[in-house]
Amino acid sequence: MAEAHPVGFQWVMEAKGRGAKVFHVDPRFTRTSALADTYLPIRAGSDIALLGGIVRYILENELDFREYVLAYTNAATIVSDEFVDTEDLDGLFSGYDPRTHTYNERSWQYVGQEETTGYRAADRERDTAAGLRHESHGIPVGGQVRRDETLQHPRCVYQILKRHYSRYTPEMVERVCGIPHEKFLELARAWTENSGRERTGVLIYSVGWTQHTVGVQYIRTGAIIQLLLGNMGRPGGGVLALRGHASIQGSTDIPTLFNLLPGYLPMPNCHNHATFTDWVDSIRHPGQKGFWANARAFGASLLKAYWGDAATPENDFCYDYLPRMTGDHGTYQTVLNMIDGKVKGYFLLGQNPAVGSAHGKAQRLGMANLDWLVVRDLFMIESATFWKNSPEVETGEIVPEECRTEVFFIPAASHVEKEGTFTQTQRLLQWREKALDPPGDARSELWFFYHLGRIIRQKLAASDKPRDRAVRDLKWDYPTHGDLAEPSAEAVLKEINGYEVATGRPLSAFTEAKDDGSTAIGCWIYTGVYADGVNQAARRKSRHEQDWVAAEWGWAWPANRRILYNRASADPEGRPWSERKQYVWWDADKGEWTGYDVPDFEKKKPPTYRPPEGATGVQGLAGDDAFIMQGDGKGWLYVPSGLQDGPMPTHYEPAESPMRNPLYGQQANPTRKVYDNPINSVNPSPPQPHSDVFPYVFTVSRLTEHHTAGGMSRTVPRLAELQPEMFVEVSPELAGELGLAHLGWAHLISGRAAIEARVLVTDRLTPLRLDGRVIHQVWLPYHFGREGIVTGDSVNDLFGITLDPNVLIQESKVGTCDIRPGRRPTGPALLELVDDYRRRAEMTGGRPPIVTTDASEREVG
Amino acid sequence: MGLKTFIEGWPVYRQLTGTDPLGRGAAAQSARSATLTARTETADSMARSVCPYCAVGCGQRVFVKDGQVTQIEGDPDSPISRGRLCPKGSASKNLVTSPLRETTVRYRRPYATEWEDLDLETAMDMIADRVIAARDETWEDTDDQGRVLNRTLGFASLGGATLDNEENYVIKKLFTALGALQIENQARI
Ligand code: SF4
């Protein structure tokens, strides 16, 4: 965090100054480790084993915050007797289908709800990363569940959890993660002692957790711990995602993602979203508790914002204009389709996949096989010049005179040359004022897309093709201003916020959304950012003039709420758990919720409220159902529905690992997304033969002085000067073993590529002794490429493409490689080197074995 | 120069006798720096902005004079950053004024070995034509069972996460109306 989010880290130091204990878990000793109380080196890709060990420690010693757990989590809920755990199936859960490598969730359900999951095509859900839409709300389950408040029932979630994690002992943690068990116990003690009524603990993660084939389950394990310890919805608690880019949160909320529409509404698929009602019902799930029951109003209002007057209740608000998904249309599938010649055009908008995405060669070969490419950036980046100076031009795989891709480079405006909002990592929108006009031809994305849309609409104005109606009917009338005809960002923000169609009055809250076409809302979770016609994101009341919650600085979704699920900061009766940790509470005299933040609960619903029999939606939520977006109002220790890879996190080895899974016969995530494409072969891992061809583990991350693929830092003189060269950090032991000299060269080889880097011999990396052997890990920054002031090989070239099954994020935080002293060969000799490794490892392309235990046959058979 | 002036010009003397015993402020100031004015004081205007790098969202104040960015500083009012910026945030003036910035449209013809110039208006028109053509060539009304698809998989987009919300909104809106599905973002990566 000190490296990649330095200014955010000041708050950790502030907490440390007030007595907080800081633990840092990382494969490499970093600037964060230097400032932490305790540093725990870990084998990359083994975090679930560590966190699972903490879950076991809590449960075995009964250190959970029992009142909180009973009231606010599903610990007491009883699960179907059809459920079989990984304990009994050697690392698989019940319901596994070895043909499709997916699960049928039926047996994971709460008891009595086995039938309610309905038909679900798990492979299609994986292809469309369907789990992502749950980012703003829970997954459907019936509201009425059977519970055992004593937590003794053998099939209640509490007992199932206890059994599932029973083998994650401190000794096992040591074997899997390489963390000595005294160190582990120090962490477990500190975490549990610092949680409860009086104290809260916080968990902070970043892409070191997400970029794995089990990334979602990493975060789930963190959430289980935080729920057991009562650290959710309370000040100083939580599971905090530190996102890596200025508005990456905003890019998910108002998604430029294939499977989502704004506000986490799913992009319809052709199989079960034939009509508007099908689509809406698949979101709101009639019979479920919670706020998502209003989905019809959110869906209608979005379509109204898109198609304006053309969208009417009679034509289902032009629902038929929406394109339909049939499977995986994600960025990696698309790149493989480019290589196969199926894609004609590509827009890159401030993004540099030639350096920043996994499997750089696949990225570049894909771009070299397009008809046209539009690159919009501040600087000339590698993705714009792949035809000129990429590694493939050196090896002869791309010949400029034979590469037909037509490339348009359109310069972009910088953050000070346009106005608009970023959503930072805490869901907080901050408006940026424009300081000056962009230079020359540089333009904002708003300008580019507004005018591109305007020109396309002009060209199609006379078309009578049915397909062009959605374009012609589009509401595309943003006012422009100035010499450049820049569209008004405020007008767009107002549409995002939503307005009453008849009067144009901006809405104040998403509860005003209507399903009759009288409201238009571009992104319902952002409603309120333009309340009263005031740009709330532009608020800049000084921190000196308001309290510590700083509710008048910017605007946070939803409803300017700074901590989600903050009803849980009070006990079931609505009283703060302790004076020290008071945040939101029930004011019995006024008959309403109050506190420092906007309460995340219906303002007037008393803690004693109990829903009438059969109530659904918001009405169905009891006065102590703190997790109001969940179908049962509870925080989930166990996830009965909605995850591809199981209801409880389970340790699997990374897709490429030098080790056999010490916990189960099942080696790696049995539902991970793999692509059968000859360009994308995976280095062998046990139990396959030849994993010794790639004996070392490599992991990558950022430097403080550079930013992601380097497009905004290798091009900036000051930053380039601070970190001028690509390097690899190796431990003194490994350097000795391989004969690597400090400041000399080394090259790293995977089944995809070979890259070179300067050697930094440092004890920031430690060989890990685990499971009777030594595992060496090396670390590299992923910022380098061929353009800019400072250049170097791109480490993402080493990775293949294997994805998390829930969200389709690639595993690019851990891979295997070989390392040799000296510089890599160049030209065709480079290809020969990689080919030689592939031959030795018998990498013939195609998918690796997914199931490595015969337990599934036992079950299926 | 009189002896008194000479002695008073000596930082150690000022440090010992003045209000700055640690010699970190007024005592250490040279005659030259005493005559300097901060760029922030002479700026024509100041815009309140946000750092474009990571997602901490540090507040920035952007100072402009004579149509040039002359300084970017941390915003002391921000409850997030309290005026601080890290090396990247501090380098953002260097980012927006970098000599490497491209400010004109560049065009690479198929099979060409070099860039050429192109004016912005022509480029926009050419891109619009290509989008329409790619869409027409790859349009899918229905699948083989007659179910509605209403889409094109003929072109794709990958956006960075430094796009504003307003920009993402219009990109998604336009692409969706065009029937384009393959819109992706760093947020997936
Ligand atoms: S100044 Fe540094 S910590 Fe702050 S937003 Fe920018 S990059 Fe992040």
Automatic annotation (TrEMBL), chain B:
For this protein, the record's PROSITE patterns field holds: 4FE4S_MOW_BIS_MGD
- The UniProt entry's coiled-coil ranges are none
- Molecular function in Gene Ontology: 4 iron, 4 sulfur cluster binding; electron transfer activity; molybdenum ion binding; oxidoreductase activity
Q: Which UniProt keywords apply?
A: 4Fe-4S, Iron, Iron-sulfur, Metal-binding, Oxidoreductase
TM region(s), chain numbering: none
GO CC annotations, alphabetized: cell envelope
Q: Tell me the compartments it is located in.
A: Cell envelope
Check the record and name the Gene3D superfamilies matching this protein: 3.40.50.740, ADC-like domains
Co-factor requirement: [4Fe-4S] cluster
Which segments constitute the 4Fe-4S Mo/W bis-MGD-type domain? Answer: 44-100
Task: Note whether Metal-binding occurs among the keywords.
Answer: yes
UniProt-listed GO biological process terms: anaerobic respiration
| InterPro entries membership | Mopterin_OxRdtase_4Fe-4S_dom
* Family to which this protein belongs: Belongs to the prokaryotic molybdopterin-containing oxidoreductase family.
Name the record gives this protein: Dehydrogenase
